[in-house]
Amino acid sequence: MAGFGDLVQKAFYLGVGLASYAGEQANELRVKAQKLADELVERGEMNSEEARRFVEDIMQQGQRTHQSQDISDSPKEPRRIEILDEEEEVEPTRPELSDRSEMDELHQQVRDLEEELKHLKQD
User: Fold this and answer.
1) Of 26, 50, 25, 22, nearest to 36 (Cα)?
2) Residue 45 CA from chain centroid, whole number
3) Which are the contacts of 15, defined by CB distance < 8 A and separation ≥ 6?
4) Distance CA 90, CA 88 (A)
5) Residues 64, 67, 68, 69: is their CA dihedral positive or negative?
6) Domain of 43, in residue numbers
7) How far apart are CA 70 and CA 93, in angstroms?
8) Structurally, how many domains does the chain consist of?
């Protein structure tokens, strides 16, 4: 079960790393847009208010582009993840839940695993 905890921890660190990277990229974009705007103000091609709006427009356009890429890249349904022990080899399947009791049983198993994970983290 320690492998599951490692997997969760790695997934968490991956998410934090991606968020950090995205923040750095957004900051770099803002700095570059601000430098360009400052140069245009210095040359007299735009005033400070126009420069401020220019930087804001660039940042909003970058966010819209990023959001539209996220939407178009996202699959139609969530990606299924299957965790295997080293000893067992299981063919990936898509179980069909025929009745409510099977679903309730799976929910209980998930809750039991979450509790076990909490206890392992405390030790």
Assistant:
1) 50
2) 40
3) none
4) 6
5) positive
6) 11-73
7) 27
8) 1
Q: Which tokens belong to 16? A: 């934090």
Q: What is d(CA 113, CA 107) in angstroms, rounded to the nearest whole number?
A: 10
Instruction: Please report whether residue 2 resides in a domain.
Output: no
Residue 119: count other Cβ atoms within 10 Å of its Cβ. Answer: 10
User: Cα dist. 45→15, 39, 49, 116 in Å?
Assistant: 42, 9, 12, 64
Residue 26 within a domain: yes
pLDDT in tens, 62-115: 777 766 655 555 556 777 777 766 665 555 555 555 567 777 888 888 888 888
Is the separation of the CB atoms in 5 and 120 below 8 Å? Answer: yes
pTM, 2 dp: 0.42
Is 102 part of a structural domain of the chain? no
Length, in residues, of the chain: 123
CA-CA distance, 48 to 54, in Å (whole number)?
Answer: 10
From CA 2, how far away is CA 20, in angstroms rounded?
27
